[in-house]
Automatic annotation (TrEMBL):
The chain holds residues 364 to 654 of 702 of the full protein. The keyword NAD does not apply. It comes from the Bacteria. Keywords: ATP-binding, Cell membrane, Membrane, Metal-binding, Nucleotide-binding, Phosphoprotein, Translocase, Transmembrane, Transmembrane helix. This is P-type Zn(2+) transporter. Belongs to the cation transport ATPase (P-type) (TC 3.A.3) family. Type IB subfamily. Its main location: membrane. It comes from Pseudodesulfovibrio indicus.
């Protein structure tokens, strides 16, 4: 039978907007020694603003934005939403009928055909994979490169704010004895390093594809096997596989994807990293009562 204390733990969690899908996850949460965070939408707000638009090879800013918005039209990624918004703000929304062959390149960007032109929008890796000569290789910040029919059209420099309570969340986790707080991100090294420094993270890994995040997870998992449990926290935009693989998978539920909410062991009803510390704290208190 399940000790009564567990119901108390699950009940207390749910009152704080923390949905724990089983008493076993309270046990795992109480034993967490490593917390791995996704970056975009988890430690950051996942709302991008445009800082700069730079064109190349004779493209105008207007045509660059139009091609980019068309390629991003069908994507739900926060970067896509921000780029489509710029085009919409001009009062000339992209015509859906002109877009074909849309494909998401997970952890890299998107690809689509717009008015017969093959358009790519994404990071350095997407450009390299497709042999596109691009510029601004070491920019600190997130860059959406745009290529049209294999030609580099330019890039859109975008920025995403850190969540206001992210720093405090990391500090709380360290204070309660979590040994390692790490960030796993598909974004570039420079941006990841800046975020890690600002937030006081123990370590970070950049340029990861969604499958690299799973691989990384399996590695730390086998190294850490005896010394504690590992939590992964994500918003679920392409990180449902890692959420599934973690000892305890935590999804930010308010803005997060349905797949993540379904896969996760713990769902946060408020998109706040501070809730992760709160969940672990409640779990530890519950264990003291149960044992
Ligand atoms: P994170 O790991 O930080 O949550 P993602 O895995 O969602 O980030 O994406 C990794 C990187 O891939 C982004 O930083 C961005 O450079 C690029 N990217 C992903 N999706 C898109 C998109 N729709 N448009 C442009 N770039 C994208
Ligand atoms: Mg993400």
């Amino acid at each position: 039978s399940i000790p009564l204390g567990y119901f108390g733990g699950i009940g207390r969690s749910s009152m704080q907007g923390i949905l724990v899908k089983g008493s076993n996850y309270l046990d795992v949460l109480a034993s967490v020694t490593t917390v791995a965070f996704d970056k975009t939408g988890t430690l950051t707000e996942g709302v991008f603003k445009v800082n700069d638009v730079v064109t190349n090879n004779g493209f105008t800013k207007d045509s660059l934005i139009e091609f980019a918005a068309a390629a991003e039209y069908h994507s739900t990624h926060p970067i896509a939403v921000s780029i489509v918004d710029i085009q919409n703000a001009k009062g000339e929304p992209v015509q859906e009928s002109k877009i074909s062959e849309h494909t998401v390149r997970s952890g890299m960007g998107v690809e689509a055909v717009y008015e017969g032109h093959r358009v790519l929008v994404g990071n350095n890796r997407l450009m390299e994979k497709n042999g596109v000569e691009y510029q601004n290789k070491n920019y600190e910040g997130t860059i959406a490169h745009v290529s049209v029919d294999g030609k580099y059209a330019g890039h859109i420099a975008i920025g995403d704010n850190l969540r206001s309570d992210a720093r405090q969340a990391i500090r709380s986790l360290k204070d309660m004895g979590v040994k390692e707080v790490v960030m796993l991100t598909g974004d570039n090294e420079q941006t990841a390093a800046a975020v890690a420094k600002t937030l006081g993270l123990d370590s970070f890994h950049a340029n990861l594809l969604p499958e690299d995040k799973v691989d990384y997870f399996e590695k730390i998992n086998s190294n850490n096997r005896d010394s504690g449990k590992i939590a992964f926290v994500g918003d679920g935009i392409n990180d449902a596989p890692v959420i599934a693989r973690a000892d305890v998978g935590i999804a930010m539920g308010a803005m997060g994807s349905d797949a993540a909410v379904e896969t996760a062991d713990v769902v946060l009803m408020v998109d706040s990293p501070l809730k992760v510390a709160e969940a672990i704290s409640i779990a530890k208190q519950t264990r003291r009562i149960v044992w």
